[in-house]
Design the sequence.
């Protein structure tokens, strides 16, 4: 959802559900100027989205002997946008033994991104 | 088995949890606060919302749904609030003396009653089903509401299908478009009846645009093909009256149709006890204290009006929790019988005339504003800053939002974009209201800028 106007790009910030409308201006020296954001994260998003777009990836992993079939997980930090599918693929076939604690590392260095996959829910042993 | 409580909270989702914690902090004993939840765990729908984007307002960090829920669940558990799981409330009654009787049941205790001073309605909402959409065709397997599909994928670990068409662009549908794509399904199209999306702009960006999933506005499903299992759907463009335009039909083969066509507050219990609903929100009519027309019955979260942000649900629920706690204290001081009687009289006129706490000023909508919550304000009961939440009924670019006290404009804000999918809010100052004695009504207006 980006619109080019000369060296200005209009973006919708996705860092939180407010969804600020950002205008990113590329200066002649290559630096990026972000306007329209209402917080620091918006400025960071505007810069990153034009240079190296990244996303947090969330998914689920099968649980053995747990109170739940699945445990929800996420990349601890954001990963390059192009690596999203690789992260999901890397989680297929993984099964973790309950109990699992929220924040626990489920898979380290997912798809060579240097980012860990962590649990976002605690699952008790059945 | 009969029990006594001071506050019974119906629903253990984000609204119920935040309301419970707030009521405790406001001075109600933990064992006098009861949360009744029908699921086997607390957290409500957050448990299946595994995506991130929750909590930026509340915790200043970006959490997933289960993480956001966990913060409130651990709070409620630490406090020691009584939680009844796998228990359903079947009826609530308000007695003449102001007390409420909550009838609930579960497998262990059977049918039982809890007597309480206050009730907080926090039942949430549910999805509009196929039956409410009038789509012709057989009833094959493969048609799910988006939230049901979300439950299958995220909780049960099963994929509902391989080739998907989504009708409606509500947030859950958009989130599921991404989720199913990442899990290997082909999401062929999101069709939206209205000329604008029902979901948040950011979800269109990160769930559709990121994956090249097309969104067709002013389009709907006019036929479902397949007898045992969905084989395909026929999609057509609609005119300004939302009627299909002949000649625009397109057949799309698919094995799954997801419906993301709106959420409806779940208020059967509320209407059963005589709570007045607002026909626009399908949620209770409430005053500044989030109190319904029945004194001591409060509402918060998606049962009151459907929110986009759980952060605002928590905030609203905390207010409801505090007001319920204050109500309980007032009743203890012996204002019980009198206040209940007075309020019952006032309740008959729903917001007109004198109520406990003085005159209620109606908050009215004009221009593009569809509704406000609250829709009544009693200045004497207001906190210094009163949040009024509302939605617009159409997309407005360069909109002007004004607040009028009778004919006087007291607030004017310019907005770049306002859309039905995004809840808005304004803050009323009590001190400002006091400058207008005898105020008849407050009006919230949204208009397109004439610039």
Sequence:
């Amino acid at each position: 959802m980006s619109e080019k106007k000369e060296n200005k790009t209009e973006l919708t910030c996705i860092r939180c559900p407010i969804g600020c409308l950002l205008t990113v201006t590329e200066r002649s020296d290559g630096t990026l100027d972000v306007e329209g954001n209402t917080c620091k994260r918006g400025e960071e998003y505007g810069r990153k989205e034009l240079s190296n777009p990244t996303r947090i990836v969330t998914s689920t992993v099968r649980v053995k002997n747990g109170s739940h079939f699945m445990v929800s997980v996420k990349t601890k930090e954001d990963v390059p946008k192009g690596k999203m599918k690789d992260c999901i693929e890397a989680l297929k076939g993984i099964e973790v033994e309950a109990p699992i604690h929220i924040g626990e590392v489920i898979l380290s260095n997912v798809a060579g991104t240097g980012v860990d996959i962590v649990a976002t829910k605690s699952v008790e042993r059945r | 088995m009969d029990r006594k409580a001071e506050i019974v909270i119906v629903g253990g989702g984000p609204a119920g949890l935040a309301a419970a914690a707030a009521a405790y902090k406001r001075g109600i004993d933990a064992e006098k606060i009861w949360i009744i939840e029908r699921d086997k765990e607390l957290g409500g729908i957050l448990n299946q919302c595994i995506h991130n984007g929750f909590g930026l307002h509340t915790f200043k960090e970006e959490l997933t749904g289960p993480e956001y829920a966990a913060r409130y669940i651990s709070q409620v558990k630490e406090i020691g609030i009584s939680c009844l799981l796998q228990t359903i409330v079947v009826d609530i009654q308000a007695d003449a003396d102001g007390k409420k009787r909550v009838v609930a049941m579960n497998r262990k205790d059977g049918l039982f009653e809890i007597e309480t001073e206050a009730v907080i309605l926090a039942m949430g909402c549910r999805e509009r089903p196929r039956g409410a959409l009038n789509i012709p065709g057989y009833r094959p397997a493969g048609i799910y509401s988006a939230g049901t599909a979300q439950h299958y994928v995220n909780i049960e670990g099963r994929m509902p299908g391989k080739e998907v068409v989504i009708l409606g662009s509500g947030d859950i549908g958009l989130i599921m478009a991404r989720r199913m794509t990442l899990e290997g399904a082909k999401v062929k199209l999101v069709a939206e009846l209205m000329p604008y999306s029902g979901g948040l702009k950011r979800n269109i960006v990160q769930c559709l645009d990121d994956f090249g999933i097309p969104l067709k506005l002013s389009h709907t499903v006019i036929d479902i093909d397949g007898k045992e299992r969905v084989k395909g759907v026929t999609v057509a463009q609609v005119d300004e009256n939302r009627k299909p335009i002949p000649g625009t039909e397109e057949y799309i083969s698919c094995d799954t149709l997801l419906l993301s066509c709106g959420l409806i507050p779940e208020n059967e219990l509320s209407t059963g006890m005589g709570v007045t609903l607002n026909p626009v929100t399908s949620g209770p009519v409430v005053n500044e204290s989030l109190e319904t027309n029945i004194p001591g019955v409060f509402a918060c979260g998606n049962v009151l009006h459907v929110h986009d942000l759980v952060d605002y649900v928590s905030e609203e629920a905390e207010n409801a929790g505090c007001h319920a706690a204050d109500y309980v204290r007032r009743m203890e001081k012996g204002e019980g019988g009198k206040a209940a009687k007075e309020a019952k009289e006032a309740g008959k006129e729903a917001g007109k005339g004198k109520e406990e706490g003085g005159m209620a000023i109606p908050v009215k909508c004009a221009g593009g504003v569809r509704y406000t919550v609250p829709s009544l304000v009693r200045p004497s009961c207001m906190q210094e800053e009163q949040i009024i939440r509302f939605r617009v009924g159409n997309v407005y670019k360069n909109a002007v939002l004004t607040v009028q006290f009778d004919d006087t404009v007291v607030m004017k804000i310019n907005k770049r974009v306002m859309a039905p999918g995004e809840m808005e809010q304004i803050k009323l100052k009590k001190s400002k209201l006091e400058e207008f004695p005898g105020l008849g009504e407050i009006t919230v207006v949204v208009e397109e800028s004439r610039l």
About this structure: The CA atoms of residues 20 and 88 of chain B lie 18 Å apart. The mean pLDDT of chain B is 92. The interface with chain A takes residues 47, 50-53, 56-57, 62-67, 70, 153-157, 182-183, 200-202, 204-206, 209-210, 308-309, 416-417, 422 of chain B (CB under 8 Å).
